[in-house]
What does this fold into?
Amino acid sequence: MIDCRTDKRFSPEEIQISAFGENDTISEIYRKARRDASGNICPTNTEPDHITIGGKNFALEQAGIFYESLWLCHLQHHPDLVEEIRVCGKVEDGHEALAYNSPARVFRIIATGGIKALNDRCREFVLTVNKKQETPFDSLLKAGFKIAKACFNEEKGLDGVDFSEHAPNEVLVKKIAEVYLSNLRKEITEEYGSGMIKKLEQKYICS
It folds into this structure.
């Protein structure tokens, strides 16, 4: 039997991980994600309104898959522990059987389908959490690249392009398109082009 309360190898209070921008124990990362309706961290004995991960809010129903993802971050690097979970018949953790933060609930998934089953369950959630939130400048970059790509494919310049639809940022989009078009034509190196884009971004942020 695995007892998560006494065996430090399986204790969420003892296992340190790096996940979703946090470096802490599994229990602490989970605890800090539990938020009330005002966005404050919930006391342990209080039902949270939602969870917050990396500045993004998720429905409380996602807490279970979040907790599974925390264990995945650890166990995918410890096949010996995964094997022990698979062959062990019973797990004690002091939580209700279906509690979001029950290690035993997570371990049952592994016992049935191995680490692959846990990875398959968590993959989409992890991708969603880690997906970079698009900024206004990212949208301008996409617009500039799209224009540059079209001009490159049609072997023409930017002179006849109407940038008015990107107002009030039409001048910036044109400059971005110029950089990308020069990159595509191999007139400048990618490194030099990236530096120019960074300068345009800084100017945009500070304007």
Notes: Residues 103-130 form the longest helix (28 residues).
